[in-house]
Amino acid sequence: MLNSILILLSSFFISNFFYKKFISNSSSRFLDIPNKRSMHIKPIPRGAGIIFILFTIIPSLIYCFIYGYNKIYFIPIAILPLSITGLFDDLYSLNPLIKYASQLLISIFLFNLSNLFLTFQFSSFLNFLFYCILIFIFTGIINFINFMDGVDGIVAGCLIISIITSCIVLNINQNYLFLLGSLGSFIIWNWHPAKLFMGDIGSTFLAAINIGLIIQSENYSQAIGLLLVLGPCLVDPFTCVIRRFLNGEEIFKAHKSHLYQRLKLSGISQDKVSMIYIACTFILSLSNIFLNIKFTIVAFLVALFLGFYLDQKIANPFLKI
Q1: Of these four, 32, 54, 105, 138, which has the most CB atoms within 10 Å of its CB?
Q2: At 191, phi and psi to the nearest 5?
Q3: Rounded to two decimals, what is the model's pTM?
Q4: Contact 180, 8 (CB under 8 A)
Q5: Inter-axis angle of helices 199-214 and 177-190, nearest 10
């Protein structure tokens, strides 16, 4: 226990030092310049996710070197190509096809590292179809989490809860404490008014880490419970894409139609919007850890009802924004 606390604290304070350096040394290429779709009004350094990524990958390499190959340790290493793609996207705004190709590649890697599908075989067309759908869902989760990184603190806050939940439920050891400590430090800099953004490099990495952990579940019930913890960060972009498609809009075009964006536009402060999503994620986490899948489903339905109420009564109307 003491060892775990020391790891958390050391990664928290050491990464905090690097976040400060990142702010002071960021070049113009790393600045997120506001536009009409932005929720911020001044340039802010982005790409700071590289710091908590390094605080995850380096310990993983050390663990693998000392203790040998272990899929739990190897997950962050397997995600490295996605992180590199995210870094170049933050710098140069890559072609969407290149980004999606890297997401497909990483999704296939993660599938092959899973416990949940350990005995999966391509023995029939239905199995192959299931595999394709699953890979598509993985890439969808990566993109949805990326879409949610639009107001200060929302993704970092929700995903640190999700990662902690997965580590507790799956009894995963100290390897991810380095990530949790450095991500906890990042939230301070990313909270409104944000001084740092994690960028695509950070949001896609955290999404892939969550996928990698969830599919280490022992059974489908456990995996569904862990996935539901991510519900607030998945349902919003999913319903937004569907509604924009039904409205005849270009679903890949930048917009301000997400519920969290429309809540902000209605006059609710960014920190309160983030707290709504973080609180829902926290409640789902508690129900998953201390109760069971049935209570988690009930909590998820309550969160859905809250989202529907906020959408209909509080947020700006869903328009072509």
Answers
A1: 138
A2: -70, 150
A3: 0.92
A4: yes
A5: 140
